[in-house]
Design goal:
Blueprint: E1 2-7, H1 15-30, E2 34-39, H2 42-51, E3 58-59, E4 62-63, H3 67-91, E5 96-100, E6 107-111, E7 122-127, H4 130-137, E8 141-145, E9 147-148, E10 162-163, H5 166-176, E11 181-186, E12 201-202, H6 204-212, H7 220-233, E13 238-243, H8 249-253, E14 260-262
Parallel strand pairs: 1-2, 1-11, 2-8, 5-8, 11-13, 12-14
Antiparallel strand pairs: 3-4, 6-7, 9-10, 13-14
Helix pairs in contact: 1-3, 2-3, 5-7
Length: about 270
């Protein structure tokens, strides 16, 4: 099975959980799965931005990214966070290679439009699978930082790489790489219902009801929205939100009693 594993930046801040994640990826690879890893790093970006005294602004959960902040995003995501994760994987016995959208023209973006100008914030519009396939054929695990250039012909400034929300990038990347599963590993057991019980499955219609009832709120709301978007991209594939903790997190996330699987409304 080819699996795209999306890892939140919060799970990569400290050495111990980062090492545990690397071990879980190593065990999944040893079990015969092909892995593509996509990671975030919002907290790490925030820390460097504050240390540099740059202004922080957000709109609808997306960072407003001016030219200087775009450089910080590239430095942190494609540099520090990416290479720390690659090192953890190599230590766990997984041959890994860190890349971004710019490497091999792996993916490019259109400038994200919103009610305010978000600056260098992009949405994936083109994916080139050549480099990722080459790495997989060589038994390397691609570790992808979600910064990317502006696609040819797209309107916007092309002098910096664009910041791409990793959750939003996961779906189109998984589709183009022909992944069988997309796992969003995070710090929760899954999506919870009104009684705080884990939902084994979640359809778009039920998600809409839970949102309207105020059950899905806060930080879980964008996670659910991105998972539902990924479900549309990965037709017939496995899409789950599952816990990142533990040396077997990836293999456990494939089991029906772990996490929340997203299913279409007509699923039986």
């Amino acid at each position: 099975m080819r699996i795209l594993v999306k890892i939140g930046g919060a799970q990569l801040e400290e050495a111990a959980p980062r090492a545990a994640l690397a071990r879980s990826l190593a065990r999944a690879k040893a079990a015969g799965h092909e892995l593509v890893v996509v990671h975030g790093g919002g907290n790490q970006i925030r820390e460097v931005v504050r240390e540099l005294g740059l202004e922080e602004r957000y709109h609808a959960g997306l960072r407003v990214t001016d030219a200087r902040t775009a450089d910080v995003v590239t430095m942190v995501l494609a540099g520090l966070v990416n290479k720390e994760l690659v090192l953890a994987l190599e230590t766990a016995g997984v041959s890994a290679a860190g890349i971004s959208g710019a490497d091999g023209g792996s993916f490019s973006v259109a400038k994200t439009t919103a009610a305010v100008d978000l600056g260098y914030v992009g949405t994936v519009v083109r994916v080139n699978r050549a480099l990722v396939e080459t790495l997989l054929e060589g038994a390397f695990t691609p570790v992808i930082a979600t910064v990317a250039p502006l696609a040819d012909g797209e309107a916007g400034a092309s002098d910096h790489l664009y910041n791409v929300n990793a959750d939003m990038a996961a779906g189109p990347l998984a589709r183009t790489f022909e992944c069988d599963a997309l796992l969003f590993l995070t710090d929760v057991p899954g999506v919870l219902d009104g009684a705080k019980q884990r939902l084994a499955t979640l359809s778009p219609a039920r998600a809409a009801r839970l949102r309207a009832d105020g059950v899905i709120t806060g930080g879980m709301l964008p996670k659910v929205e991105m998972a539902l978007a990924a479900l549309r991209e990965l037709e017939g594939g496995l899409v789950k939100i599952a816990p990142a903790a533990g040396d077997d997190a990836v293999l456990q996330a494939l089991q029906p009693d772990i996490g929340t699987r997203f299913v279409p409304d007509d699923a039986r």
